[in-house]
Amino acid sequence: MEEGSVHSEPPPLPYSLHTRKKAIAIFWTIFVIDTLAQPLVLYWALWYATDLSHNLVFSIVTACLGGVSVFEYFYRLYNLFRKDSRARPLNARKSWLDFFHINFTIVWLILAVELIVGTVPEEPYVRLVAMVLPTVMFYFGGVHLSLDVLRMCGFKAPFRISSTPKGSVMPTALYVLIEDVVAVDGGGGQIYRYALRTRYLSSPYFRRMLFEMNCFWGGGSIICAAAITAIIFTVSQPVAYTLGWCLPFAWAAVWTLITIPWVQSDLRRERKAWQAGGLRGGIPYTDDINAPTPRTRFESVQAHINFLPWAREKQSPPPTPSDSRPTEDGAVDEERGEAGGGGVGREHQSTPGP
């Protein structure tokens, strides 16, 4: 970008996970105990080691479930609604919830219906109760992919989506999730919302990275949830219940281990491209989905694998001095090659997206 090129670094994000390792570790330890260990231990202990009716067993299990999530829900609600809130979306009314909390509310209502239907009968529907976490995966995966599909199709935001005003370009869903979770749950507040929005609008590469990560998590969530659902309804009930609560955590762990080095690599590439002036193009400081970007980590890996017919880049004649330019690594590549990013998976079919 022409205005951003005067800076050697992309706009910083004033938030570090390194200083919050202890708090993060405590939260996730309690969350795993509450959402994974507790329902499994109570089920196996009460179902097989007591004479309680099956209905009473699941009444106890569901009554003890989700304490951390319930606390987190009302903690977020308080932080968003309080008079002097520094966590609510930018330029939003006091009564406006952020996008994550709206979805948090909807998914809790869905789960409440699911658990009531599954536990009210005298002989509970064990398989339905085992579907709690896969349902969450289906919901958030579907919502996040839907936002990015609408974004690719050129739709504008029909209402305020956290700090993105109504009528703006539909934001990539992962950007909204990061903004809301870090600002409210992580304590980053409006300072972080503003910094993240500045980075998002300033860097096409950053937007492109978030789009690819959103597809990775959203698509992976739906595919894995479908596989877990198939397992739940084919194996025996005790195994189905156990796997229904365990496999989503296993999936999340694997996806996280893949995501960390992936994002770190892309952030290094973004910094190099910024320093080399390789982020020019598109409308400056605007969510321009057609702005060209240097090749991301995903596209580089994709180009090396190159085993799917639709993933193969079109062959073109060698570049001439008039239609070539330096890439982010200082080499010369074709106008639509390394610097322009010609791999598949673009947000826009005809021109590269951010």
Automatic annotation (TrEMBL):
Report biased composition (Basic and acidic residues) as residue ranges: 325-338, 345-354
Q: Where is this region: Disordered?
A: 309-354
Q: Which UniProt keywords apply?
A: Membrane, Transmembrane, Transmembrane helix
- What this protein is called in its record is Uncharacterized protein
Source organism, top-level taxon: Eukaryota
Q: Which organism is it from?
A: Aspergillus sclerotialis
Q: Give TM segment ranges.
A: 23-44, 56-75, 96-116, 128-150, 215-236, 242-263
